[in-house]
Protein backbone atom coordinates (compact mmCIF):
# COMPACT_ATOMS: atom_id res chain seq x y z
CA UNK A 1 0.00 0.00 0.00
CA UNK A 2 1.43 3.39 -0.91
CA UNK A 3 1.54 6.36 1.47
CA UNK A 4 -1.30 8.25 -0.23
CA UNK A 5 -3.65 5.29 0.36
CA UNK A 6 -2.46 5.03 3.98
CA UNK A 7 -3.15 8.74 4.44
CA UNK A 8 -6.63 8.37 2.96
CA UNK A 9 -7.38 5.42 5.25
CA UNK A 10 -6.16 7.36 8.26
CA UNK A 11 -8.35 10.33 7.32
CA UNK A 12 -11.37 8.02 6.88
CA UNK A 13 -10.68 6.43 10.27
CA UNK A 14 -10.53 9.87 11.91
CA UNK A 15 -13.83 10.85 10.26
CA UNK A 16 -15.41 7.57 11.42
CA UNK A 17 -14.29 8.23 15.00
CA UNK A 18 -15.73 11.76 14.82
CA UNK A 19 -19.09 10.44 13.61
CA UNK A 20 -19.03 7.72 16.29
CA UNK A 21 -18.53 10.35 19.00
CA UNK A 22 -21.36 12.46 17.57
CA UNK A 23 -23.66 9.44 17.57
CA UNK A 24 -22.76 8.61 21.17
CA UNK A 25 -23.84 12.12 22.16
CA UNK A 26 -27.09 12.13 20.14
CA UNK A 27 -30.03 11.19 22.36
CA UNK A 28 -33.49 10.29 21.12
CA UNK A 29 -36.48 9.82 23.42
CA UNK A 30 -39.57 7.75 22.74
CA UNK A 31 -42.59 7.60 25.04
CA UNK A 32 -45.49 5.15 25.26
CA UNK A 33 -48.04 5.37 28.09
CA UNK A 34 -45.60 6.98 30.51
CA UNK A 35 -42.60 4.74 29.72
CA UNK A 36 -39.82 6.90 28.30
CA UNK A 37 -36.85 5.21 26.64
CA UNK A 38 -33.76 7.25 25.75
CA UNK A 39 -31.56 5.82 23.00
CA UNK A 40 -28.27 7.22 21.70
CA UNK A 41 -27.35 7.45 18.03
CA UNK A 42 -25.46 4.16 18.29
CA UNK A 43 -28.77 2.44 19.12
CA UNK A 44 -27.86 1.82 22.76
CA UNK A 45 -30.52 2.44 25.40
CA UNK A 46 -29.19 5.03 27.83
CA UNK A 47 -32.23 5.14 30.11
CA UNK A 48 -35.69 3.62 30.57
CA UNK A 49 -37.95 5.50 32.93
CA UNK A 50 -41.58 5.29 34.05
CA UNK A 51 -42.94 8.83 34.31
CA UNK A 52 -46.42 7.63 35.27
CA UNK A 53 -47.90 4.45 36.71
CA UNK A 54 -50.20 3.91 33.71
CA UNK A 55 -48.50 0.70 32.54
CA UNK A 56 -47.73 -0.80 35.94
CA UNK A 57 -49.75 0.75 38.77
CA UNK A 58 -48.60 0.85 42.40
CA UNK A 59 -44.88 0.18 41.90
CA UNK A 60 -42.73 1.20 44.84
CA UNK A 61 -39.48 3.04 44.13
CA UNK A 62 -37.24 -0.04 44.24
CA UNK A 63 -39.59 -2.05 41.98
CA UNK A 64 -39.74 0.87 39.54
CA UNK A 65 -35.95 1.17 39.45
CA UNK A 66 -35.51 -2.59 39.00
CA UNK A 67 -38.03 -2.72 36.14
CA UNK A 68 -36.47 0.30 34.40
CA UNK A 69 -33.03 -1.30 34.68
CA UNK A 70 -34.31 -4.66 33.40
CA UNK A 71 -35.96 -3.00 30.38
CA UNK A 72 -32.79 -1.08 29.53
CA UNK A 73 -30.50 -4.10 29.92
CA UNK A 74 -32.81 -6.47 28.00
CA UNK A 75 -33.13 -4.11 25.04
CA UNK A 76 -29.38 -3.48 24.94
CA UNK A 77 -28.66 -7.22 25.14
CA UNK A 78 -31.08 -7.90 22.30
CA UNK A 79 -29.60 -5.11 20.16
CA UNK A 80 -26.06 -6.40 20.74
CA UNK A 81 -27.06 -9.91 19.68
CA UNK A 82 -28.84 -8.53 16.61
CA UNK A 83 -25.70 -6.57 15.65
CA UNK A 84 -23.55 -9.69 16.07
CA UNK A 85 -25.87 -11.72 13.84
CA UNK A 86 -25.91 -8.94 11.23
CA UNK A 87 -22.11 -8.66 11.41
CA UNK A 88 -21.67 -12.40 10.92
CA UNK A 89 -23.97 -12.38 7.91
CA UNK A 90 -22.21 -9.35 6.41
CA UNK A 91 -18.81 -11.00 6.83
CA UNK A 92 -20.13 -14.06 5.00
CA UNK A 93 -21.44 -11.87 2.16
CA UNK A 94 -18.20 -9.87 1.98
CA UNK A 95 -16.09 -13.03 1.89
CA UNK A 96 -18.29 -14.31 -0.93
CA UNK A 97 -17.54 -11.08 -2.79
CA UNK A 98 -13.81 -11.44 -2.10
CA UNK A 99 -13.77 -8.47 0.29
CA UNK A 100 -13.30 -10.34 3.59
CA UNK A 101 -9.51 -9.95 3.64
CA UNK A 102 -9.74 -6.19 3.12
CA UNK A 103 -11.67 -5.79 6.40
CA UNK A 104 -9.22 -7.80 8.47
CA UNK A 105 -11.94 -10.30 9.25
CA UNK A 106 -14.16 -7.77 11.03
CA UNK A 107 -16.40 -4.85 10.47
CA UNK A 108 -15.92 -1.35 11.88
CA UNK A 109 -18.03 -0.27 14.83
CA UNK A 110 -17.93 -3.57 16.64
CA UNK A 111 -20.40 -5.32 14.36
How would you summarize this macromolecular structure in one to three sentences?
It is built from 2 helices and 3 strands; from the N terminus they run H-E-E-E-H. With 111 residues, the chain is of the alpha+beta class.
Please explain how this structure is put together.
The structure is a single chain. With 111 residues, this protein is α+β, with helices and mostly antiparallel strands. The chain has a domain of 77 residues. Strands 1-2-3 form a three-stranded antiparallel sheet. Strand 1 and strand 2 form a beta hairpin. The chain is elongated. The two termini are 26 Å apart.
Describe the structure using short key phrases:
alpha+beta; single chain; three-stranded antiparallel beta sheet; 16% strand; 3 strands; 2 helices; elongated
Per the principal axes of the C-alpha atoms, what is the gross shape?
elongated
**Main beta-sheet annotation:** 3 strands, antiparallel
- The amount of beta strand, in percent, is 15-25%
Task: Measure the end-to-end span.
Answer: 26 Å
The whole-number mean of residue pLDDT values reads: 86
Radius of gyration: 20 Å
Give the class from helix and strand content and strand pairing. Answer: alpha+beta
Name the helicity range.
40-55%
Instruction: List the uncertain runs.
Output: none
Order of strands, widest sheet: 1-2-3
Tally of individual helices: 2
- What's the β-strand tally? 3
- Write down the secondary-structure element order: HEEEH
Amino acid sequence: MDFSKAGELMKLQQEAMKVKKELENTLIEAEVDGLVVTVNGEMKVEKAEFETDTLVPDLNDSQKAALEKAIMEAVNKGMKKAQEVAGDKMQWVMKGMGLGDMMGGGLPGGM
